[in-house]
Write the structure tokens for this entry.
Amino acid sequence: MHNAILITGFNGEIGRQTLLALSKKETLIIALDINESDIKYDNVVYIKDSILNKDVMKSIFTDYNIIEVYHFAALLSQSANNNPELAREVNEEGSKLIIRSAMDHGIQHKSFVRIFFPSSIAVYGPRKLQDAKEWDIIKPQTIYGRNKLVIEQFGTQKYEESIQLGYGIDFRCLRFPGIISPYTIPSGGTTDFAPQMLHAACNNEQYTCKVDPSTLLPFLSIKSTIHAILQIMTVPHIQSKLRAFNVEEISLSPEEIAKELQKEFPKFIVDYDIDSKFQSIADTWPENLNCDEAKKEWNFINDCSKNAMFEQYLIPEIKKNYGKY
Ligand code: SER
């Protein structure tokens, strides 16, 4: 039986770049998504299906010796609010199915299946925190935040059971802030204004932002996102009692992002049409995250300036991506 890595939601913003990084390994990859892939790597078996399909999940764990799982398939915060029942099914039931399948597989093979789960700043609330620590007030105000917290806790519980048994799963999470990618334009999230502004500026489009210009939120570039995922998944043993770690590089408001982009794209115009569906969520998510635990555990580096984020990385990379050099 082949050793293999399972990745779900590989067509999404984080999934695509994670699959690219994983495809450079020698290991076979099983890539599951509800959408067809437009990029083909040689060592990847593509499956177009839902994580809710129990038969598919069963055959993946029967046909391959799954050693690692990267589980990205999910509805983001705005999509979850618009469709709470589907969010519960996909974000909670789908995730539990994967965690249980991995646990059974680990027990059967007398091994630990390492699972990466992307949690979110959405687990924080109800107040907007500054320098939020992992154990700070955790009372998510959104369906999406509650879904994420349920899975953090479920995975941690299954991990603890695995430690008692001597095999099962090794569950690891990062609490992601908003992610800015020069490669994809996300939708369905509350922090999406940041990457959407970047792409609009590069494409000479005007942008209407639904979040107040002064609202601060934490962000991470996609490059550092993938780096952090690969780092947490290679730490041989996590010393901390935590299974979910904060990661951020920089705290930004819409007006600061606009200003950075206007340095390169002086004609870029942003106007504001505040939407309470977005603002009320942004107001319960932290301004910035304390990343001391990740620094301790695997030397996570987060001393990023606006200049390093925009002028040195995002702007040159997006121009390259759109062939604008
Ligand atoms: N970026 C996500 C969202 O806005 C938060 O994890 O929904």
